[in-house]
Amino acid sequence: MTSVLRPHAEDQFADELAILAKTDDRPRPPGWRLSPWAVTTYVLGDGGQITPKYIGPRRIVEVAVATLATDRALLLLGVPGTAKTWLSEHLAAAISGDSTLLVQGTAGTTEDALRYGWNYARLLSEGPSRRALTPSPVMRAMEEGRLARVEELTRMPTDVQDALITVLSEKTLPIPELGEEVQAAKGFNVIATANDRDRGVNDLSSALRRRFNTVVLPVPATTEEEVGIVAGRVAQLGRALELPRTVTGLEEIRRVVTVFRELRAGVTADGRTKLKSPSGTLSTAEAISVVTNGIALAAHFGDGVLRPADVASGIVGAVVRDPVSDRVVWQEYLETVVRDREGWRDFYRACRDAG
Amino acid sequence: MPEVSVLGVRHHGPGSARAVRDELSRIRPDLVLVEGPPEADRLVALAADPGMRPPVALLAYVPGEPSRAAFWPFAEFSPEWQAIAYATGAGAEVRFCDLPAAHALALDADPVRRDPIGELARAAGDDDPERWWEDLVEHRGEAGTLDVVAEAMRAVREGHVAEGTEALREAYMRTTLRQAVREGFARIAVVCGAWHLPALTPPAAPAAEDDEALLRGLPAVDVEMTWVPWTHGRLAAGAGYGAGVAAPGWYAHLFAAPDRPVERWLVQAAVVLREEGLPVSSAHVIEAVRLAESLAALRGRPLAGRSAGTEAARAVLCGGDEPQVELVRRRMVVGERLGRVPDATPMVPLRRDLRDEQRRLRMTPEATPKEHDLDLRKPLDLGRSRLLHRLALLDVPWGTPRRARSKGTFKESWTLEWRPELDVALIEAAVWGITVEAAATARVRDLAAGAGLPELTALVERCLPAHLPGALPYVLGRIEDRAALDGEVRHLMRALPALVRARRYGDVRGTEGLAGVTDSMLTRICAGLSPALRGLDEDAAREMAALVDGVNTAAALMGSGRWRTTLTRIARRDDLPGLLDGRIVRILFDAGALEEDVAVRMARSMSPGNPPARSAAWMEGFLSGGGLLLVHDPRLLATVDSWLTGLSPEAFTGVLPLLRRTFGAFPAAERRMIGRRIRSGVAPAGEEATGYDDTLAAGAVRTVREILGHTGRP
Questions:
Q1: Residues of chain B contacting A219 with CB distance shorter than 8 Å
Q2: I want to staple B141 with a disulfide (CB 3.0 to 4.6 A). Which of B18, B175, B180, B635 is the partner?
Q3: A258-289: b or e for each residue (b if 16 or more CB lie within 10 Å)?
């Protein structure tokens, strides 16, 4: 057992990648470890040795893989918690065998993070040279013909984002200080993720936007699918965080997922009643954290069984982000939907007590 | 022996359509038999009329029975339409060879939907028959595919024995074919669904005598036929015969495009997006085509098809933006296309239905205005009223309502006048349905689809007298939806009173469902009212007070306790605008639900700690229901009096207009009584309390309480 909190995808699933590489006899694009078809199988699973990494529509993954195979850059859009980063990590792991060439976009990201920086000690002693250059993950990906990942692209300032334009269209990175350039080796490409809830933060310039094919990751399509994702991740996380064992009824998970789905979609599961949606995103990732949190509560302070009261405060916290408008939404939901629902009496009471 | 060619097609398949067109111009038949109701034979000539533009449908209906109708839609890319178009152009005769609609409607049998293409696709190891057929046939449209299909169908139908309606239909097709042979046509082409092909060709075809025996003594009804305009949207919905088409726009494109369907389709999608002002360049289209092709390769398909094209448009042209994808879907995949029929087409059934209704209700359309008083308690008059209300909904205002002379809700007065333009309006209204009721229902549903809350409540009030049981639940459902999404609680409060009023008609008009909607609206109002009372300026507070009054009356009619609980909770707050606070306290006081003593509450609100303007507003809200309270409860009057006399001269001038407005609204008699009280000195209530005998008054008090609806302990 490794002491690393979270191993990289290519390490955690090394044996699955090896199996696929051995059996994969379809043509591989230059620089790819696997054929596009095998990459799709790796991500979606084959029902046997290969476990599904992403649970969602097949077409999403197909479009993403086909995009990377056409040497266009891939932009994964979606509300927070729709597995954008997760998918990009696994795509990089399957295609290049390396998911570590990563740039995290923040308001403070500079152009150096996308191009190159300088080792100033060497720069002063030796003058400008390739040895004095510190390459960015993007530059290394170009040299080695791998995939570079840019997280939260829209959080970077727009002028920094635009440093990617030449890289994506000309596939070259000029180094004017040395009069040189780095030309991308075959297999290089970029996967960027961005959050479309706050699209306005630093919108992509249309010149850059044009270099990307956009794939919007949806929220899970059915309750069962989402319950499966939540239950699976909660079990994995519980093991990784070494939480004490609890009795986690699928019942409680289904309840959390149902509440999240109904409020997110603005309509009850039976399609009979419309609802207002709160301002929060209520993503699957949040459902996972509500349940994990509830398990921690049940394990350390409760009787070891996940009960409505353990998840209620988590749910209220996730739903009521804006103390005024979201509170109205939540009250309406409690009174018009939860109150009269068969078998939800305990849950209703727990939620009322939680606020 | 004539030469007979049977062309098996897929209904609404563009590849089949192209193959049929080519095949027909090769064999040059003098008779074309098309799968469809033979009653329409005499309407075929209209297909060549320049005023006819597909998509159109053949409509068969039983006069007077709106539910018994059937449609046979045709699009430009339907093989059947291409066959008719070829025949009328080349001077060949066209006959329909399916079971007559007279029998089909009389049997009322839902035809068994076969999925031969699906069976073939499964045999080929593909789980999506549409896609499989597209790859194999529709995308190629080469000569010879018809033969391949014929051979495959024989294999699929091996051992299958037709039963029920299917057997009848095929027997009729064979009979028509034999009849044509007897009449001496030289070259006959039959265009029918691929599934029927083996049943019409020699080895499998039964003998003529068997068919005749089968068709003998079938029930029949009187059937009328006409052409009606159709839309791509309705083709996609899959009504009528043949399977619904998932993507009529895409098929129309496949049929029209000479080559490179995906490239052309993506270019057109780019044009559509550009028309909406979205920046889509040729470079986008190039990348979209590349993505579509590599997607097709990844999926192991020979050519990029509809789904790859849509995915490429989504990822590249639309940048993943769903509304833009929806635009492309609506304009390009379904394709907004509305058909047209020539003027010579037989009379629309709506007009015929209206004539029948008029006969039944003994009303004659007259050009001179005439007044009618209807007594809704009589069935005949009720029927007339409903007809007039329905026509009004269809924008055919035959009757204009006048104010009824008597006050009862069972009387209605109308002025009837049939003007020539109403005939035109009626033809326009024919798109909504074939009977007045069905058309009005469809129209209401259409109106409701895009309406906001106020329009919807108005629509309910129009629906009730028109008695549209098919439309009312839908409108109520929409109200429910709107109410749920409307973040503005004032909209709900404004809509509720009208709905509650309508609910009282319950017995006469039949308003099931209304109760549920009003209850849930009240629940939502109760949940949202408290936050909505924050930060209101004077005008907003005044408006809100009126709304609270309206909801209060409605809630009383509904007998809801939740409303009062909500108000009680709100009354505990101390940050309300004065007017509203006063109003709510008064409502609770009148209902006997105020938690604390009213005098204490009033004293607190009028105490010097409050700005004078707020106190004055509070008093206005409190007293706006009438001033008699001040006459009867001297403690309240004393509070008002001491507040007024305690004001500084400037503050008094400030609140004077408010006071004037409050007291000016009271009836003169009340004002006089208050004045007399003041003059006689505002004394503590001691002497009055001994003015009557409790035991003597008990009987009267009990009766009065009963009248007021208060029960239990006095």
A1: none
A2: B18
A3: bbbbbbbebbbbeeebbbbbbebbbbbbbbbb
End position of a domain, from candidates A182, A216, A250: A216
Element at B460 (helix H, strand E) = helix B453-466
Which residues in chain A have Cβ-Cβ distances shorter than 8 Å to B483?
Answer: 274
* Distance in angstroms (rounded) separating the CA atoms of residues B553 and B226: 53
Say how far residue A48 (Cα) sits from the centre of its chain.
24
Least confident of A232-246, B414-428, B608-622, B675-689: B675-689
Question: Considering CB atoms only, which of A213, A273, A331 is closest to B316?
Answer: A213
- The burial of A245, by beta-carbon neighbours within 10 Å (0-12 exposed, 13-18 middle, 19 or more buried), is given as exposed
A-chain CB neighbours of B295 within 8 Å are 62-63, 66
The pLDDT of residue B242 is 44
Q: Which A residues, 299 through 328, put their C-beta within 8 Å of a C-beta on chain B? A: 324-325, 327-328
* Mean pLDDT, chain B, whole residue set: 79
Q: Is A146 exposed, middle or buried (0-12, 13-18, 19+ CB in 10 A)?
A: buried
Q: Which residue of chain B comes nearest to A212, CA vs CA?
A: B316
pLDDT band at B687 (very low <50, low <70, confident <90, very high): very low
Split into its structural domains, chain A has a count of 2
- Between residues B191 and B337, the one the model is more confident about: B191
Residue B479 touches chain A, beta carbons under 8 Å: no
User: Which whole number is the average pLDDT over B73-77?
Assistant: 86
Q: Are residues A230 and A124 in the same domain?
A: no
Do A303 and A271 lie in a common domain? yes
Same domain, A210 and A344: no
Inside any domain, residue A15: yes
A325/A347 same-domain check: yes
pTM: 0.62
* Residues A256 and A115 placed together within one structural domain of the fold: no
Q: Length of chain B, please? A: 714
- Establish if A218 touches chain B: CB-CB under 8 angstroms: no
CB of B320 less than 8 A from some CB of A: yes
Q: Which chain A residues are closer than 8 Å to B531 by Cβ?
A: 324-325, 327-328
Whether residues A209 and A289 share a domain: the answer is: no
Same domain, A104 and A241: no
Residues A156 and A231 grouped into a single domain: no
Q: Which domain range does residue A257 map to?
A: 223-354
Query: pLDDT digits over A137-180, tens only?
Result: 999 999 999 999 999 998 889 889 988 998 998 999 999 989 99
* CATH number, domain with residue A142: 3.40.50.300
The average confidence (pLDDT) of chain A is: 86
